[in-house]
Amino acid sequence: MSNINKASKNSSRQRFSDEQIKSLETTFEVESRPELRMKQHLAKKLGLQPRQVAIWFQNRRARSKPKELERDYNVLKADYDKLVSQFESMKKENQALLIQLQKLKQAEGRSDEQFGNENMKIETLEQTRFLLENDSPELGVPLCNDFSRKVDYLWDDADDHPELVQMADGYLTSTDNIHSFESSCLMDNSSHSGNGGQAFNF
DNA sequence: TTGTGTTTTATTGCCTCC
DNA sequence: GGAGGCAATAAAACACAA
């Protein structure tokens, strides 16, 4: 269609009146996708063509879409932040419980060597915590690059204690936790290929 | 007044569903 | 295949600074 034809075809275009807009908005709040019958009723009531009413709702939905997306994003982010917070507190609780377990096992007569060198554990804890906290400061959560490097078996005789492994940051955790954590990392790895120079070799 | 950016109405083309 | 929805886009109407 030429520009001239378009211009002549649109020459009668005019903005809807405040009353028309108000009525359309009111309807939109109740039903953003009104049925044909409703659109015909509205058109008759407002002195518009049914096609104009249909187009108005179409455009109105398009305008509201970014706002809806923003609302959904905020809800999801709030949920996510809450989960991160819960995860952190559960991680601490888990650590405390595993330390308790460690002490109990020590009390049972195990030597310190079987549980690894405490000094090295503390040093590794500080280094890894720094890296994880700086992986994604804007989200306040660590990413999962090179996860496999961050897991070491706590005991040389791991066969005796397959239920416990040591995270590289010094936290103790169960193998079940490790597996679930690895699964969650699959989502992150797509957007963070490689270790970005941040991974830490142990 | 005019140039420019934004908003609103309308068209087009494609897709999905029945 | 027709109806209706959506994304992309055109173009008129409007707002506003200079």
TrEMBL record:
Domain Homeobox: 7-67
Compartment(s) where it occurs, according to its Swiss-Prot or TrEMBL record: Nucleus
One GO term of the biological process aspect: positive regulation of DNA-templated transcription
Coiled coil: 73-107
Any one GO molecular-function label of the UniProt entry: sequence-specific DNA binding
Feature: DNA-binding region: 9-68
Keywords for the protein's UniProt record, in alphabetical order: Coiled coil, DNA-binding, Homeobox, Nucleus, Transcription, Transcription regulation
GO cellular component, one term: nucleus
General function of this protein: Transcription factor.
Family assignment from sequence similarity: Belongs to the HD-ZIP homeobox family. Class I subfamily.
Protein name: Homeobox-leucine zipper protein
Organism: Olea europaea subsp. europaea
